[in-house]
Amino acid sequence: MQKSISLLIIVCIAFLVEACSMFAPVDPLTPAASEVSVEQVWTSGATVRGKIDNLDPKNDRQEKKSGKILEYGFVWGTQNQPTIEAGTVIKVGEDNPPTPFEFVREINRLDVLTTYYVRTYAKNQGGGVGYGPVATFKTDDYVFAELSIGKITTTSKASADVVVNVLSLGNAEISSFGVCYSSTNNEPTTKDSRATANGKAVKGSFTVNVGGLAAGTTYYARAYAITLGGIIYSDATTGFSLGEPAVFTPKKSFTMYYSNPYDLDMGELVSQVGSEDCNWYPYNAIAGIYPKNGARFAVLGKVNFDQVKYADLARANLSTNFINGSYTDTKANQLENGTVIAFVTNQGRYGKMLINAHGEDRTPGTAGGGDMEVTILTYDKQ
């Protein structure tokens, strides 16, 4: 009996020791895969990118002890193996995001000609901290190239040639250069659209073709160069625009008859199935425009038909959605007289349509009503 009691006491003590260890100070919960890379370095700063494949390794015992990760980011300093206590922290997030994921930050206000060390970190609920491998970089005393933007000429209905002048090279090696441009930002950056020049950067002039432009839209352009020391831009920004494209079908008025399909490239009723851009008010359906074969439409509202430019059509929110034209349901009617519709045909031509006169909804069993008089204009393909 005494032996049994002793054995029981030993088991209880072992259990208590094990239980206490579950609440002992925790070990760091290190990210399973954590990388950092240095993307750019300049005189007083750097851009770093962190990549984490798995923030929360599936270690049951460790999770019970330490919990989930509550904070992660970068830590950097001038000493190798920087830590939260002996380094500068850039906190990125506070919760477990879906993995894998990447995050990018800038480190600023650095000293010139100085070596720095950076790595990712993660902190869990128990207070444990894990670090990724270290990356190193050195700031430099850069002299940057000088750039300017020159003549801009249109070479097609959708592109332009832009001259970039490299006036001097400096000592920051240029990895790529060209033109950045935008229709909304009058000081465009490489985060907007950009076109890269061919060949290695040397002093001289380079012609860069900028494509994918819309006629009638004003663009802003300036030269850029990407170097190890950072991205540099020309001081001046130049605005330019392409002219309106040629008209394919001049302004034309016609009647869209009840239950018929229409080709909007030409503004004609068609009988060949597959060539129509829309059906107007089909049998036993709601009055309205039914897009066909990929043609898309957008309601611009009661605006001046003649003042609607090609650029307005190209940037309209075109869709293949049905456009309600029922006068019976006045709240849903989108085709009141004077309304302008933007469209792109199944052949890829942009155009505009003016609702001149919309007849009453057709009464079932009668021969009257249901037609709509319109005016259209279509532009040639870009």
Automatic annotation (TrEMBL):
SUPFAM superfamilies noted in UniProt: Fibronectin type III
InterPro entries from the UniProt entry: FN3_sf
Range of residues in the leader sequence: 1-24
Keywords assigned: Signal
Protein name as catalogued: Fibronectin type-III domain-containing protein
